[in-house]
């Protein structure tokens, strides 16, 4: 990736694993904090950070390309409200204290469409409690997908946790159309946006 990437990743990244990490310490204040799990190309993370400078955003992905794009946006727009994590969300969320995050986004995750692979889906019964442990009571879990079956199984998993309200439908006005969403539209699929509010504590 070169010297520029190395310089930016050293300045703006967080380690996947390690000691407990409170967002207020990371960003130096009590800003509204969002965790985006699977940031893709990074377009939404940069767009949101630019238009919501008083919000703090942590974006995690296993792929370097999206992380690099976010870092480029951080430099271009001189953003101080973004941190990136290159790694596994299932590991990173364990660094975050319970009830420390205001929103968690899971937008267009890998659908793992084959039945034998569905145990790899991110929003599933055995993982939902771990992924959402950092979410505050009153915080919001957001999902966008163009796979109807994924939306159904995710809704079942969230409901089974007993932590959340019934989902609401509707695309937030700040959620820009991503590359993955445009691909789905070309293939005849519409996006489904769901949001749940956490109503129960740990």
TrEMBL record:
HAMAP family: tRNA_methyltr_TrmB. Keywords: Methyltransferase, S-adenosyl-L-methionine, Transferase, tRNA processing. Its EC number is 2.1.1.33. One of its GO terms (molecular function) is tRNA (guanine(46)-N7)-methyltransferase activity. The keyword S-adenosyl-L-methionine applies. It is an enzyme of class 2 (transferase). GO terms for cellular component: tRNA methyltransferase complex. SUPFAM superfamilies: S-adenosyl-L-methionine-dependent methyltransferases. This is tRNA (guanine(46)-N(7))-methyltransferase. PANTHER family: 3-DEOXY-D-MANNO-OCTULOSONIC-ACID TRANSFERASE/TRNA GUANINE-N 7 - -METHYLTRANSFERASE (PTHR23417), PENTACOTRIPEPTIDE-REPEAT REGION OF PRORP DOMAIN-CONTAINING PROTEIN (PTHR23417:SF14). Pfam families: Methyltransf_4 (PF02390). It catalyses: guanosine(46) in tRNA + S-adenosyl-L-methionine = N(7)-methylguanosine(46) in tRNA + S-adenosyl-L-homocysteine.
């Amino acid at each position: 990736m070169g010297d520029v990437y190395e310089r930016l990743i050293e300045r703006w990244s967080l380690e996947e694993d390690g000691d407990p990490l409170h967002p207020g310490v990371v960003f130096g204040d009590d800003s509204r904090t969002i965790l985006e799990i699977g940031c893709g190309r990074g377009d939404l993370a940069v767009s949101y950070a630019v238009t919501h400078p008083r919000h703090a955003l942590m974006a995690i992905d296993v792929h370097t390309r999206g992380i690099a794009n976010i870092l480029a946006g951080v430099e271009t727009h001189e953003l101080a409200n973004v941190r990136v994590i290159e790694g596994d969300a299932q590991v990173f969320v364990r660094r975050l204290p319970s009830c420390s995050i205001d929103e968690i986004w899971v937008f267009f995750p890998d659908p793992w469409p084959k039945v034998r692979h569905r145990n790899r889906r991110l929003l599933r019964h055995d993982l939902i409690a771990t992924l959402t442990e950092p979410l505050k009571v009153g915080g919001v879990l957001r999902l966008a997908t163009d796979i109807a079956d994924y939306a159904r199984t995710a809704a079942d998993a969230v409901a089974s946790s007993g932590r959340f309200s019934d989902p609401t439908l509707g695309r937030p006005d700040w959620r820009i159309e991503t590359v993955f969403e445009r691909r789905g539209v070309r293939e005849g699929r519409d996006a489904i946006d769901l949001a749940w509010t956490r109503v129960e504590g740990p």
